[in-house]
Every structure is written in C-alpha cells, then in structure tokens.
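input
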Amino acid sequence: MGQPISELKFVDASDTDPTQARALESVPKPMPELNMYAVVAYPETGICEIRTVSKTFDSDAYGVNVRSAIDALSDALDAKYGKHDKSTYCSSMGSCQFFQMGLRDGSQGYSYTWSKSTGAKLPDDVSEVTLTAMPGEYNDTFYRLDYTSSNREGCRNAERKAKAAAL
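output
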C-alpha cells in the first residue's frame, strides 16, 4: 500500500480515470490462481486498493468450484492473518440452489473478511482484506481478493480531488 504511481506499470498507459482500478502489467509475487491484478492509486497517496480476480470457473451454476477455491484460499489467509469473518446468505426470494444466478441478482453472497475488528493481524498499511464470490457471464463464477489501505481518509480525499478535477 502507498507505493508511488511512478513505480507502477499499467497495462493501459493512457491517462484514464484515476478513481477506477487500473490493471497492472506485472506484480512482484503473482499467484497462479489469479488472472489479473489492478490497483486504485493516486499521486498523493500511492496505492489505495489492490484488486485481484481469479480464473473463471466454467459451468459453475451451483457454485461448487468457486466456493471450494475460496475456502482453500481462506485457509491460507487465515494462516497468514488470523481470524476472519465469513458471510454467506441466500434470501428467500431466490432459489438457493442456483448459486451463480443468486450472485448475479444479489440474492446470494459468499465472502470472507479479515480486518482489525475480526482480530486479524494485518500489516499496518492494510485495513481490510476481502475474498468474495462473483458471478461470471453465463453459468461461470470467479472470485475477487482485495486489499484496502489503512490510509482511508487520504484515499477518500484524493478520490474527491480527482472527481472534482473532471468537473
């Protein structure tokens, strides 16, 4: 967190909206399970968020593959950071059997969160780590693993400044 923008190499070198995540060309320690790494970063703060996306789990309408992968990764994150908070839900409006469709319409969710409030031992510059199941195109699923900076106020101010510059 906080790494200066000048040290980052983005896939798209053009001047884009700084409030949106930008894909990175490479990272120091890539994980084979993750297909893409992106950051939200500002000149004033450096990296505010790291967002990663897993490979796609094809034909995973019931969510068996994505949930197994998330659970396995959560075990590794538990070993590194300690206690997590797990959130799973399915509203009575949707059919809990069709996991991917429930993710798509918001009636289902499956995620883990590590933060100081859960008792996790995160680095000082990280306030939260989240691991979340996401819907893909059709019956596909994937997950996101995100890291959020402890410099929330600085990042919010930088975001406001960037948005105001576009007015």
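quick obs: Residues 5-165 form one domain.
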